[in-house]
Design a protein that fits this description.
The protein is mostly helical and 432 residues long. It has a domain of 117 residues: Serine Threonine Protein Phosphatase 5, Tetratricopeptide repeat (Alpha Horseshoe), CATH 1.25.40. It has 24 helices and no strands. Helix 20 runs antiparallel to helix 21. The radius of gyration is 35 Å and the shape is elongated. About 3% of the residues have low confidence.
């Protein structure tokens, strides 16, 4: 037998001896419990009891462990077993009985509306057993009954600090943090962004892993034009919930706003990876491909999205715009007409449709589309410009000039409008 083999046998023998030693297993379990390793402690203590079913100290420590987990029923079971094994452990069983009594008294007080009296009962438990999460949990329930949402959140959060896997405390905290989220969303919709932000951060104060609060904060910061802050918050969402497709999409829009089209494309693609039917991600992707003149790729993406979602108006609009870029005006009209039929409240769709009709010299149709555009947004110079082009095509120079004058009021279209007016006033300059 080699020296190495002898060492292996020795180590195996020592491990076996240790595994069968209830005192050693108890010591290990206590150490694990103290360090927060609940799973490891439970295994060690159960092994200790298996090695010696009458070993009362291990049985009592198991009772304490289950109390730490908020499982009063099992804590009581093992406390009774400890007494059966050794009468000297009766005091612990009495303490378990007092916990039960305090809970019953507290719950009775809550039912009677005696909330502060209930809190006194739960505090008595925590004073004697600060590691029992249900003391904090029941305080949370009491504050919730009082409609003290912040107080409820604080106690549920405290319960989870004691035992992070406490299912009832987790559910309670989820319920109250969602209330903060809902209040924030209502404030957001009303335009009170500062108040909305306060509610979202209040949710995170009690649950740092509440990804929906980070998401809403990211959306809010993007709305306020703070792309970098939005990106930071949205990346936090993905650390917690990497499969959240809406975050990938919103991050894409933030990168797009920040001028980083490469990252925008990557994030739209990732959103689609997690949600094959994400219409908006396809639409934005198609738009970016069009802008970068990757026309074949843009066409493939946009054709895909209108097949996936035949009611996605923006998909048809962006495909129509792509065909304008490619000078395929018949196809542009076909898709843009569908987009306006699906959404007749978007001025931009009518603007693009008017442009396509003007390129085809279908002046009446162009004028109708352009009129719909300016009816929806009176100050949009692009609509007035297309309306002027249509009237010019119909040889209504006076009317056309009037529309170009309207277009001039929009500084984004002023230069083009002035050129059109100059074409009317000085046609000889533009004769070929």
């Amino acid at each position: 037998m080699t020296q190495f083999q002898r060492i292996l046998i020795l180590l195996f023998t020592m491990t076996l001896a240790f595994a069968q030693d209830p005192e050693a297993l108890l010591e290990l379990g206590e150490s694990q419990l103290l360090s927060g390793d609940i799973i490891g402690a439970e295994k060690s203590l159960k092994d200790a009891v298996q090695a010696d079913p009458s070993f009362a100290p291990a049985i009592q420590t198991l009772s304490k462990l289950y109390l730490h987990k908020g499982d009063l029923k099992k804590a009581n079971e093992f406390s009774n077993q400890a007494v059966q094994a050794d009468e000297d452990f009766r005091e612990w069983a009495i303490q378990i009985g007092k916990i039960t009594e305090h809970i019953q008294n507290g719950n009775r007080n809550v039912q009677q509306g005696l909330y502060e009296e209930a809190i006194i009962e739960y505090d008595a438990i925590l004073k004697a057993h600060p590691y029992f999460p249900d003391g904090e949990f029941y305080k949370g329930l009491t504050r919730f009954r009082q409609k003290d949402i912040e107080g409820a959140a604080r106690h549920f959060s405290n319960a989870l600090k004691i035992y992070p896997l406490h299912p009832k405390a987790r559910k309670g905290l989820d319920n109250v943090t969602k209330q903060f989220l809902n209040k924030g969303n209502k404030s957001y919709k009303r335009g009170n962004l500062a108040k909305a932000k306060d509610y979202y951060y209040k949710a995170l104060e009690f649950d740092t892993e509440f990804y929906l609060a980070y998401f809403q904060l990211g959306v809010l910061e993007k709305k306020q034009g703070n792309s970098k802050k939005a990106i930071e918050l949205l990346q936090k969402v993905l650390e917690i919930k990497p499969e959240h497709d809406k975050t990938w999409f919103t991050l894409g829009t933030a990168y797009e706003s920040d001028g980083n089209t490469t990252e925008a494309v990557n994030h739209y693609l990732q959103a689609i990876e997690f949600n094959q039917g994400y219409s908006k991600a396809y639409g934005n992707l198609g738009k970016l491909y069009t802008e970068s003149k990757d026309y074949k790729l843009a066409e493939d993406v946009l054709k895909t999205v209108i097949q996936i979602d035949p009611n996605y108006a923006d998909g048809f609009m962006r495909l129509g715009f792509l065909y304008i870029e490619l000078e395929k005006y018949d196809l542009a009209v076909e898709n843009l007409a569908i987009s306006t039929s699906l959404d007749d409240e978007d001025y931009n769709k009518y603007f693009n449709l008017a442009s396509a009709y003007n390129h085809l010299k279908k002046w009446n149709e162009a004028a109708t589309a352009a009129q719909s555009c300016v009816d929806l947004k009176r100050k949009f110079g692009g609509g007035w410009l297309e309306l002027g082009i249509a009237e010019l095509g119909k040889r209504n120079r006076t009317r056309a000039k009037k529309h170009f004058q309207q277009a001039k009021n929009d500084r984004n279209w002023r230069e083009m409008a002035e050129r059109k007016i100059d074409e009317i006033n000085n046609p000889e300059k533009y004769e070929k």
